[in-house]
Structures are given as structure tokens and as C-alpha cells.
Amino acid sequence: MPERAVTSRDRRHSFGGVPGKQFVIVASVPEHRGLTRRAFIARAAALAVASQLPACARAQVKFDKYPFTLGVASGDPLPDGVVLWTRLAPDPLHGGGMSAAPVDVAWEVARDEAMKDVARSGVTTASPDLAHSVHVEVSGLEADRPYWYRFRAGDAESPTGRTHTSPPAGSPAQRIRFAFASCQNYTQGYYTAHANLAREDLDAVVFLGDYIYEGTPRGILVRDYAKSGWSFTLADYRDRYAQYKSDRDLQTAHAAFPWIMTWDDHEVENNYAGGIEKDDQHKAALLERAAAYQAYYEHQPLRGPRPQGPDLRLYRSISYGDLVTFFVLDTRQYRSPEVSLCREEEETPSGYCPASLDPKRTMLGAQQREWLLGELGGSRAQWNVVAQSVRFAQQDSNPDAARHTFDGVDNWMGYVADRQSIVDRLAKTKNPVVISGDSHVNFVYDLRRDFADPRSPVVGAELLGTSISSEGDASPASTQFDPSTKNPQLRFFDNHRGYVRCSIERSRLTADFRAVSTVRQPTASVSTIASFAIDDGRPGAHRI
Ligand code: FE
Ligand code: CA
Q: What is the mean pLDDT of residues 514-523?
């Protein structure tokens, strides 16, 4: 939806200097853990007094309850802008609590945390067909600098978020810091990883999927959903997103950095694949996918266009000067149906089920694959990061030393032809790195030109990050690195909860595997359990 951008001249006329209600702000801003409560209240009060957000054109909107219960977010940075997100939801866990009317939402972006030096502002509409969410695609900002932003609806004011634009296109940027994370099952753990991630010094967060879990609570539970059923309808998915987004640590992490996002299976359904067949059996699946995709869009800082039925184009690239380009993939929407596991005697001598080797099968779909191969082929970036959801490398699960079994039917081992086409392209790409999630453990792999031949050249590295909370705290026995003779490509294994913090400079990428002490308690410490480096021109990661 286009924004009515307000210039500074317009603002002199239209900005009323209406202060926000202090009690509202104090009650609702995610707590900054570095601040005492008293200091925090003082800062919130100062922010309220300093408020210059415009009184809305439809200022008659009155909220009985605070509407910004799901926080604020920003995403997909460009050199001159970001997308800003919020959703009005005074009753977040029960449909949102809004009437059917559209509501004007004012927004502003400032150069300072106190929101005094406003760079851009405007008014957008939160409409009921998108659950009163807003997506403001701000432009006209300066490259490579922090900005702060907030929203106003009626007499309510949102928390203030911080974001960061990317360096000028093609510029020789010297450094970018980001973290990547995935798999945040709400019932299986507190978001202590997000609380710690929010305190890092980062330009962006890359989230690789399983933002929600659509199903009923299972496994070791530390907290409950307000509604514990399966998500199937749009209303179900909206309430599930609201449940996740109600978490203060998640809100704090969103408010701290722009996020670059893709999804995995649980945003729709466990291990789903495509679902675009047109027979009766799949019509229900398509309806479910449409509901899930719409709810995903409604709750994330994504650029338009909004989803059309069961279709949402999510794959895209995001560059930081000529230092790094992120190729963000969608490994769910276009994939061929999952193969069923074959019996051992049906496996090919290579260890794969015959169906996994079928060259007609695709993980990405032809269009996305050609896009990726073309983009990688034309990239002038110093580092090329393929950001996607599921394990890319081959991993042998057969305990018998004389046999191989590659049975990961839900990851790239079920889609060998597509993977090989990408590996072949990575071999010709400058400093390629694949980042992944889904496995709920940390892995570092060498990516070889031919996985079957341990003497074939290493063409790149895969860094696979653990879960934020899914599967809960690790058992100590399962955190030991097993230097497997069967998987010489495996450089590291660890089973803590956390995220991966990366720094990219011209000559080196470093990755710190950050582990929280627990997800069974609401607060926890974080530490680096291992660091790896990838040096310019030398494919593969090594421990430092
Ligand atoms: Fe997961
Ligand atoms: Ca998954």
C-alpha cells in the first residue's frame, strides 16, 4: 500500500505534538535488561513528553486497551530504506480485538533514539483484511546508519524500535555483523536466546524458519499456549503468531535490528512440500497454505506484494555494498513431494534412495533455481551467503562402517539434483557460504564438489545453526563432538540452544556459536562455545 510521505514542510502543519499516555508506554515497551526499572520509566516518560507523532486523521479512534501488544519490527534493509511493521491487536490472543473498520496509523523515523530529529514520517492504513497490520516501505533514508522508529494510532503510541540501513549499492563496505537463528518453539523453551541476541552489536538478524510451530504442544513443556489446538484456519494462524509475538524477549530482538526472514515447514505444517497439486486431496492443503502464508505476511516485516492466495514470493537477495549478498531462499513452496524412506535393500550403492536421485525432483522449483544460479553467476560480492532453511550437506547416518545411508528426505539429501546444480555453481562463486537451520543442533560442514569423493575439492562451507528454543535444553551427553570417520566433511557438532553471531570483513568471515545456559528459566547467560573462520579465497571453515 503506498504511503503518504509527509515532508518536513507538511509536518509543520499537521503535527500536533500530542504526547503519548505515559502509563501505556511504561506498561508495554519490552524491558531493556540493561536498565533499572526506575531508569526505564524515566526514559519512557521522557520519550512520551518528546513525542511529535502526528494526531491521526481518524483521531476519533479510542482504544480501551493498548493496541501495540505485539511490538514493532523492521526488515529487508536497503541503502535508502527499510520496511517497518506493527499490528494493532488490543486483544492479541483472541482474534486481535479490533472492529472491522480500517484505522490510520502514523509512523515516523528519526536519526536519534529520543525521536527528536525526524527524517521521514507519514500515515498508513491498518486494514482488517490484513489483521490491522501495517507494512511501511520507507525510502529516502541515508545509507549505512541507525534509525529509530515508532507508530501512533488514536491516542496510543508504540514502543520505539531501532533499525539500520545497508551501505550504498556496490560500495566497498568494510564490515557487517549479523546473527542467524531459527526454530523457536514457544512451549519448549523461554526465549533467553533472543534476550541475549538483542544485546549483541549487529547490523541485522537473519531468521531461517520455524518462527511458529503450528501444532499442539509436545515434548518437554515450559509454558502453554492460550489456545493449544492445531492451526488450520487464518484465525488459528493469526492467534498462534500473536502468541509468539507476545513474548517480550522476541519483541526486544525485533525492536533492536532489522530482520531478514525466510520460512521453513512449521509456518504451515510439519514437513510439508509445495502442495500445489490440483486434485481434491490437495485443495484443503492449498487453503491451509493460503491462510498460513497470509498470517506470515501479516506478522513479519516483509516488503510487498502481499500473498495472493497460496502464493507468496519470498526468495530474494539483499546486499551490503559489494561486501556480501544474502541469497534468501524458499525451500518449501515449490518443492517436489517428499520421497518416502526406502528399505535398505532398495538403496542405491551410493547410499541414496533411488527417488532422491530423480533429476526431475526439485527443492527450489525451476524458476527459483534459475534465479539463484543466475544471481550467483553474476554476483560481484566479496562474500555470497545462501540463507535457507534446511541442511544442505550430505550426512551419512549408517552406523555400519561398510555402508552408507543418506536418508534425510526432508532436507537437501532428498533433492540431490537441485543440490548438485547449486554446488557446481558455488564452485565458481567467490567465497560462498550456506547458512541453515531446522536441525535444532549446530553443525559446520565442508561442502565438496562431489560429496561421494572425499578427495574432491572443498568449494564452500555450511554453517548450520541450532534452535532458539525447540527441543529444550540439551542433555550433556549429546553435546560432545564426534569426529566421525564416516563424515569427514563434518567439522563441528554441538547441541546447545542459541544462535550464530557472524562478522564479515573483506578478508575473513568469523562465526561464533553462541549458547544460552538454559531455556527452562526465563533468564539465562550466553557464551561462545566455538568460533570458526572462513578466509577469503580459501573455501571451508576452520576452528579458531
Ligand atoms: Fe524446527
Ligand atoms: Ca523445520
A: 98
